[in-house]
Amino acid sequence: MSPVTIAVDAMSGDRGAAIAVAAAEEAVRENEALSLVLVGSRGELEALLSEPHPRLRIVEATDAVHMHERPSHALRHKQNSSMAVALRLVRDGEAQGCVSAGNTGALMAFGRSLIKMYPGIERPAIVKLIPSLRGRCHVLDLGANVDASAENLYQFAIMGSLMAAAVSGLPEPRLALLNVGEEEIKGNEQVRLASHMLAQCDSLNYIGYVEGSDLFRDVADVVVCDGFVGNIALKTGEGVAAMLMELLEQAFTRSLYGRILGWLARPTLMRLLRTIDPARHNGASLLGLQGVVVKSHGNANERAMLAAIRQSAREVRLEIPRRINEQLDELML
Amino acid sequence: MSPVTIAVDAMSGDRGAAIAVAAAEEAVRENEALSLVLVGSRGELEALLSEPHPRLRIVEATDAVHMHERPSHALRHKQNSSMAVALRLVRDGEAQGCVSAGNTGALMAFGRSLIKMYPGIERPAIVKLIPSLRGRCHVLDLGANVDASAENLYQFAIMGSLMAAAVSGLPEPRLALLNVGEEEIKGNEQVRLASHMLAQCDSLNYIGYVEGSDLFRDVADVVVCDGFVGNIALKTGEGVAAMLMELLEQAFTRSLYGRILGWLARPTLMRLLRTIDPARHNGASLLGLQGVVVKSHGNANERAMLAAIRQSAREVRLEIPRRINEQLDELML
């Protein structure tokens, strides 16, 4: 594999730098082609590193963006934050991708200000690969924008399709718009107009509308919605999954018989858990920037952070930004 | 219990009149204070009834609204449909509530045209009681409107609070707006403005924003959103639940050991299944009309249809429309 360098914003997650450092050490151990740059307080990071590693270096950043800081405030006052420094490493070519578990809005704002967007793309979107029973599905936008015009949705659809093609190797990913199910109220104006625009575009495999429940039924490879809807749908789904896992846990601890059964069934249940474990599916991509920027969940544990680092390395290896850039022209209206 | 009469639109569901008739026979059997009016084709309904019952009568309707018919078309051409006739029984006081598994949009349109709305309420909303791990939560709107102004959201919040108080006996139900989690993009303009309006209202126990995952965490008793977001969130949640149940099913059928375990664990898992069984939670209320109108899922089975009939009878007994009407005045801006 060709060598890949990823900048890791080590200071912005909820759980502190220890998570980022541990994940980074594991990442360079498992992947010999990977080099990482840990960005943050040198003293703190050096103390956390178990030993020096030739493919793990530290770049000092004296400041950090807080989780609840306004993006505009961060942009004005936090140019020396670990987040901004990590993104600048990507801009300057010292790293090819960046991972941050920090404030999404600030990451978005710094991303747009430090790394160029694709020409013609108005807004970046957050995209995530959602696991389902049979396949996987790229869903965007998951919260970069609280509303979206038909034109925005159309652009998200193009970027999402190109990304799905590059990531999953599908020649013609099935593209759909997320909509409500009832026939008579088929979506708001933006969604209907975006649907009309997409139906005109021969280069996209647009299959029409899908409903919330279709996200897990391998009906589409790319599903597009505005960030408000996407964020709420994703979190509702996570809420249901968490509730069911807790119910299952309760079921197998309620009685002695239940506990024995639970013990016997543990390997079976663990396999199930692994399939939907959020840590394994951590990592959302900022799509629209001419560079790989992966957002990790704010309270990611070590395993989840490792998943996000792996994802950014994969996107770099697949040259996602270059491939999207090359094919964007012919698809833009 | 005081006697209650419910009109059942027997012809509009996906699965035909047999479901409605079977559910109706069970409903009058289990509840001696309940009378039902089955509305539809007399010949078909009589053939389906296993025997005459003193509290089960048939009212003829010569037509039916199709599942994919436009509401405006239904309103113009289907005044003799089982749906319209059932609602007219409520309007005329021959029934106190109505249940239909038909086309939501048409039910909404007929409901608005045949039954008065509360004074001052601009649009009805669809509300459903969502089960969670610890409590239950009234969520609205679930698809009556694809968009909603701040004023609409405010009115939904009032109606939802009054309904939760009446249904659950909570003196001050915790009221929240559904929003995205990230601080910096706290919702679109409508949500922010509605939040401001609700915060001013001393008679409501407004607790602020909640996220999608909070729907199942007993954080609020009433959660308000527009119908587009609500519909997609609900269906995404249902999709996740269906996927997990299928994964569980697979886990316990994959190997002989798994099958034996599954057989041993069946009672435990069945209890879990019952907790989240959609059939037990079938029935959404059209809120805003001065009458009880319950929408059953289109492809409800007999048990689900029975749940919807029970719900409408409960809402009639609790005099939900009268109670909301009485308290609405002081809460409206």
TrEMBL record, chains A, B:
Pathways involved: Lipid metabolism; phospholipid metabolism
Molecular function terms from GO: phosphate:acyl-[acyl carrier protein] acyltransferase activity
Signal peptide residues on this chain, from the entry's feature table: none
Subcellular location as annotated: Cytoplasm
Pfam families attached to this UniProt entry: FA_synthesis
CC annotations in GO: cytoplasm
Quaternary structure note: Homodimer. Probably interacts with PlsY.
NCBIfam families the UniProt entry points to: plsX
Function summary: Catalyzes the reversible formation of acyl-phosphate (acyl-PO(4)) from acyl-[acyl-carrier-protein] (acyl-ACP). This enzyme utilizes acyl-ACP as fatty acyl donor, but not acyl-CoA.
Name of this protein: Phosphate acyltransferase
Provenance organism: Tamilnaduibacter salinus
